[in-house]
Amino acid sequence: MFDRHYKVWPEYAPRSLTVPETSVYTNLQITALRYPSKDAIVYYDSTMTYGELHSEVEALAGYLQHLGVARGERVLLYMQNSPQYVIAYYAILRADAVVVPVNPMNRTAELEHYLKDTGATVCICGQELFPQLSPLVGSEALKHAIVTAYSEYVRKETDLNLPAEVAMPAKSITQAGVHAWTDCLAAGHRPGPHLAEPEDYAVFPYSSGTTGAPKGCAHTHRSVMAPIVAGLVWLPSTSESVTLATLPFFHVTGMQTSMNSAIYNGGLMVLMTRWDRRVAAELIQRYKVTSWRNIVTMAIDLLADPDIANYDLSSLNSISGGGAAMPEAIGAKLKQLTGLDYIEGYGLSETMASTLINPRDKPKPQCLGVPIPNVDTRVVDLDTLKELEPGETGEIIISGPGVFKGYWNRPEETEAAFVQFDGKRFFRTGDLGYYDEDGYFFLVDRVKRMVNVSGYKVWPSEVESLMYRHPSIQEVCVISSPHPRRGETVKACVVLRADERENVSEQDIVDWCKSEMAAYKVPEIVEIVDELPKSPTGKLMWRALQEQEWAAKK
């Protein structure tokens, strides 16, 4: 067991924790019994109590079972942050089914893959996203779509600036197989007994890799529960805590730190559907927010508001996040404004959020942190898997109760993702890093091919696969390019078919990509080239293009 970090271990935190032998849904059931009249959610000044939340979860779970959703079946959740997201997430679990969170920026072609891979027959969808889902209802395995408008939960007047999706009134959709959210809740169906156990599958967040197509990380109720409990011990929180939920719930960090942790504790979630720095500052001030989990770009944007000093942010006692390193200068400005250190952490879809977090009282800048309770983390040589010493760079491997069981329907990739070490099963993160003498871990590079766009992970092989649908593209190689604000952005080097070279421009390809894939995946830069570099065996030398791109822009 890695124990070098015990010298900086918080005095208040146990080194090992017992994970509850209950389902994730049970957290809500217990909290609703304890605090039925306590507010669970604030949504642009409209509120919902834990009793109301649990009642609507029961109603929707009953409707899902009425539609034929059975224990262990997968249900797509395609929605932005909203009360409906929380209700749908816990209703799926209450129905003993599996939540498949889908990035709301995904489009029809990407949704097709999720449906084929999971066999989902039901998708719960935000109204503004339904045009992307509509062509698939009745095709593939998808039989039913439950559609909701976020405005249905803005039930009182507010002076806050509402995003367009939230202001949009509910529309009637008459397409076969489509069910209105309000009708589902009003139908009066009651779910059967809750049967899910700790080892039942609970959530399949999708990750990706060198093979291109996103793959489901199969998490059980136990592996979702473990990081919730550990995170609440590491960064202490209570039923009186108020969390500003700006990170998307489809991503494991927002899901765990802003939604599931609050429900486990009985805390208050202050939800935002879209990031807006003025609204965020006003919500912190208005509802005395105590904790804010974010990505670096949000913190940078908040600090860039010339009026930020006019807001009362004194209620904050914890600001943390991950996805990309916090620049030291920005961290210093944030501390000057709030008096708080920015606590960085490290996690993956495969580990159900953070496994490394900086100690609250002893953080190091631009550092992943140290292993939290029950987590064993090592650094090993890429080739020999020999454990390395402090300061030596190798692959970070992780063992712990939050590590997933494997990739859904991909036994070979699952086998390749794990290694036995000291009699334990370790996940190979694909990230290169090292640890220092005090046991703090630092990220150096990535073994896996990935572009990190403001914390969003873009897998070049997936973007290439989508771009090959363009009739004029003969070859494409996607790499990262440095970006002053995002850190990295997506660039595509494209070889056109010989008969199309005079007809298609770089901007034409960018515009086509915007209609075919999530916005953060769209190549910001397209360069049309005559050929792409290849090895003697014909393998595309993407790394050579990558290094050339970064060297040219230094």
Write a structural description:
The protein is of the alpha/beta class and 554 residues long. The chain has a domain at 451-552: 2-Layer Sandwich (GMP Synthetase, Chain A, domain 3), CATH 3.30.300.30. Helix content is 29%, strand content 25%. The chain has 16 helices and 28 strands. The strands form 6 sheets. Strands 2-1-12-11-13-14-15-16-17 form a 9-stranded mixed beta sheet, with helices on both faces. It has a 5-stranded parallel beta sheet with strand order 4-3-5-6-7, with helices on both faces. Strands 18, 19, 21, 22 and 23 form a 5-stranded antiparallel beta sheet that branches. β1 and β2 form a beta hairpin. α1 (24-34) packs across α3 (83-94). The longest helix is centred in the first third of the chain and has 17 residues, at 50-66. The chain is globular and about 65 Å long. It starts with 23 loop residues before the first helix and ends with a helix. The mean pLDDT is 93.
Helix content: 25-40%
Class of secondary structure makeup: alpha/beta
Task: Bin the strand percentage.
Answer: 25-35%
Return the CATH class of the domain at 451-552.
Alpha Beta
CATH architectural designation of the domain at 451-552: 2-Layer Sandwich
What average pLDDT do the residues reach?
93
Annotation field: number of helices: 16
Coarse morphology: globular
Q: Please report the distance between the alpha carbons of the first and last residues.
A: 41 Å
CATH superfamily of the domain at 451-552: ANL, C-terminal domain
Q: How is the CATH topology of the domain at 451-552 named? A: GMP Synthetase, Chain A, domain 3
Q: Whole-number radius of gyration?
A: 23 Å
Q: Major sheet: order of its strands?
A: 2-1-12-11-13-14-15-16-17
What is the strand tally?
Answer: 28
**Biggest sheet features:** 9 strands, mixed
> pLDDT under 50 segments (min length 5)?
none
